[in-house]
Write a structure and sequence with these properties.
The chain is an all-alpha fold. Helix content is 68%, strand content 0%. Helix 4 packs antiparallel against helix 5. The termini are far apart.
């Protein structure tokens, strides 16, 4: 087993807390087992793992992430995603297939949201010409988590947001009944409203009848629409 992977697995096992593991699984509404290791401890584990076993090549980046992801506990998968984010130099379009795999197999908000904002979103900033055509297809994908990822990819982009696509994606999914899509529409709009409240306010007022109540309420949470 890869050094970084075996180190992470051993550290998580050594820090396991069965009682906390039960509570964490209940909160996430999953049958996937937890070790019961909280986020602050996982951060310490990852920091030490990266110090001891630095990643110097893209292939090592991919194999380490996949190896962690394929371990059975949720924290191992969390650390696979955290490792992917931490190794900034390897967040590239060439690894998009890997990120898509994590979204599809993760299939829950705790994985999908951070992958969308921190990995897909970073690739989008770095390589928009190649990624936008794919996201234009993702927004209509059969997999709801891929659609959610397309909605959330610009979550941290602020003034670099492509507002045309943000609003277009929201409207293309506005008639969906799926909770996680309706929530994502509202979240994406609410986040961009921190940068351009006037633009989001105009959009909401113009399309109020098309958006679900949930999407509208989430988007308008910090706006004064009158």
């Amino acid at each position: 087993m890869d050094g970084i992977v075996s180190f992470v697995a051993a550290e998580l096992s050594a820090r396991a807390d069965p009682d906390r593991a039960v509570a964490m699984a209940a909160y996430m509404k999953t049958e996937m087992p937890f070790h019961g290791v909280p986020t602050p401890e996982r951060r310490l584990i990852l920091r030490e793992a990266r110090r001891r076993f630095p990643i110097h090549a893209q292939e090592h980046y991919r194999t380490a992430i996949i190896a962690l992801w394929e371990l059975p506990h949720r924290e191992e998968k969390y650390l696979a995603v955290d490792l992917a984010i931490a190794e900034r130099r390897w967040i590239t379009f060439e690894n998009l297939d890997l990120y898509r795999r994590l979204i599809v197999e993760g299939a829950w908000w705790d994985f999908v949201d951070v992958i969308s904002a921190r990995l897909i979103g970073q690739v989008l900033l770095d390589d928009p010409e190649r990624l936008w055509p794919l996201l234009d297809a993702w927004i209509d994908d059969q997999d709801l988590w891929i659609r959610r990822a397309a909605l959330l990819a610009q979550l941290k982009h602020k003034y670099r947001t492509d507002t045309g696509r943000l609003f277009d994606y929201c409207l293309r999914r506005a008639d969906e009944k799926e909770f996680f899509i309706r929530k994502a529409i509202g979240w994406a709009l609410r986040e961009y409203a921190k940068t351009d409240p006037a633009a989001v306010s105009r959009f909401l007022l113009e399309h109020r009848e098309e958006l679900s109540g949930l999407s509208f309420r989430e988007a308008a949470k910090h706006l004064s629409l009158g």
